[in-house]
Design a protein that fits this description.
- The termini are far apart.
- A hairpin with a 2-residue loop joins strand 6 and strand 7.
- It is globular and about 65 Å long.
- By secondary structure, the protein is of the alpha/beta class.
- The chain is built from 19 helices and 27 strands.
- It has 3 domains: 164 residues, Rossmann fold; 215 residues, ANL, N-terminal domain (Rossmann fold, 3-Layer(aba) Sandwich), CATH 3.40.50; 107 residues, ANL, C-terminal domain (GMP Synthetase, Chain A, domain 3, 2-Layer Sandwich), CATH 3.30.300.
- The strands form 7 sheets. The protein has a 9-stranded mixed beta sheet, with helices on both faces. Strands 4-3-5-8-9 form a 5-stranded parallel beta sheet, with helices on both faces. Strands 19-20-21-22 form a 4-stranded antiparallel beta sheet, with no helix packed on it.
- 2,3-dihydroxy-benzoic acid binds next to helix 9 and strand 16.
- The site of adenosine monophosphate has 21 residues, from strand 16, strand 21 and strand 22.
Amino acid sequence: MSDHQFIEAKLWEGIVQYPPEFVERYIAKGYWQGQTISQFFDDCVQKYATRTAIICADCHITYAELAQKVNLFAVYLAQKGYQTGDSVVIQLPNIAEFFIAYFASIRIGMRPVMSLPAHRHAEVSHFIGQTEARLYICAEQHMGFDYRTLARECQSRCPSLQQVIVIGNAAEFDAWPELSTVANRYVITAEITARHVAFFQLSGGSTGTPKLIPRTHDDYLYSVRASAEICQLDENTRMLMVLPVAHNFSLSSAGSLGLFFAGGTLVLAREPSPGTCFELIQTHKVTHVALVPALAAKWVEAVQQGARNIFADLEVVQVGGARLPDALARQLIEDYDCCLQQVFGMAEGLVNYTRYDDSVETIISTQGSRISADDEIKIVDDEDQELPAGETGHLLTRGPYTIRGYFKAEEHNRKAFTSDGFYRTGDLVRMTSDGNIIVEGRSKDQINRGGEKIATEEVEQVLNQHTQVIQSALVAMPDHMLGEKSCAFIQWRREAHDPAPVRLNMQLRQHVQQSGLATFKIPDHIEFVEDMPYTALGKIDKKELRQRLIKASN
Ligand code: AMP
Ligand code: DBH
């Protein structure tokens, strides 16, 4: 096999490709333009060179300066011996280095994995293991957590990992390189096409481990360009980035990439508190911000308590990631003069937006309509039969920027996709006569904790490993701020030296934390039960458990 064939084979390993007839169609319709993310970035830089791309703390970076840094970091990576097809896990807070690392690694054909700051060693080592990542890039600390401890854990578990780059005090690891000392050489752009996988997004998923989502240059950039247009971003847009930069919403709906496409300025917030963010909005005359409902509720609370009504200052406030309660939507629009846009999306692909010229009622009560006329949407019953218009059912989708399979997950893919390539979103929705989607619930076994997704099975597996747990069931518990929190029902084993459930309660939380799962996966509440309720099929009846919680909260 030649070198080229070898790399080609490696690039497609574990990836489900789009069937040829769809490739042809998406190209013919102009959705897939054959542009790589590196070429896209170069175009942005050429168009907007002297404009400010990023504001991070006191640092203002123009597009040209960003390009220079990206180029130097790409040279550094190439000199370290990284090659096309190598993976890198990037786990950074909202700082400019995220974009340098992202664009530079893509430039040399590496495939970044978009880890979130909340992930811990269980998730990060899984990402490294799945992609055989050679490099992990993190910050020394963020929100009181020391990522070097996480790096040590991953190093001991992941044989593929060769280098860790730490921004800040690197301890025994490599410091982020002083880019001014890197020789300014021309990097040979990787020989990849726009059809190749550019990077891996992540999904909350609903089974064991978070799933890796392979996104190609072509499909991702289509969603970015189309989103920038729908959101009407331009050179005067000043977008505050509050949610984690790596999240699909933040990156592409329309997000930072949409913003760069339009030539606007990105203002990075290190943390999402109203104190920090309201000041940034005022200082930098921010026009756009994207929030999850829980954060929107927190900001409303701050305004109610006397903070300036920031919602009226902004041109657009996007809310997505979890169902925005109609009442909060109405409050934002009617009481706070907010120009609201609902966004219902998924890292697997499909994104829906309410449009600026939709009626107020549409914006309040729906999650918007699809980006593309070629986003195929089916609403089906339990037997995959399409339902009559207006009825609630399972949302299936296929389209020019929706994946055909998770990375290296053959078995899971058979369940998560239909045989003709529709992605089973796990969302229960209905569609209004004018094509807007209303999210009514979900059929996947997942908890949406203020936009952070918890696959219940992943946490249950960990809980079940505790010696005093006979079995466990994690279910959603209504919460007025986060929408949902998690409650673990535990059937427990009484032992001779029985610690009271109070102690066991604490032990179980510690147990989940020590297993290295993201902190948001630690159960918010634990209920001890003598036995579980069962369905007719003998499975734990989670519906009944959820109902108990709702009853208890009334
Ligand atoms: P993920 O697959 O992890 O990227 O998460 C995407 C999921 O988040 C969707 O399938 C929905 O369950 C949920 N989601 C995202 N946006 C919204 C929204 N605006 N309303 C309700 N649920 C949402
Ligand atoms: O929740 C999500 O994953 C999400 C929400 C809004 C998303 O991926 C997106 C927009 O692109």
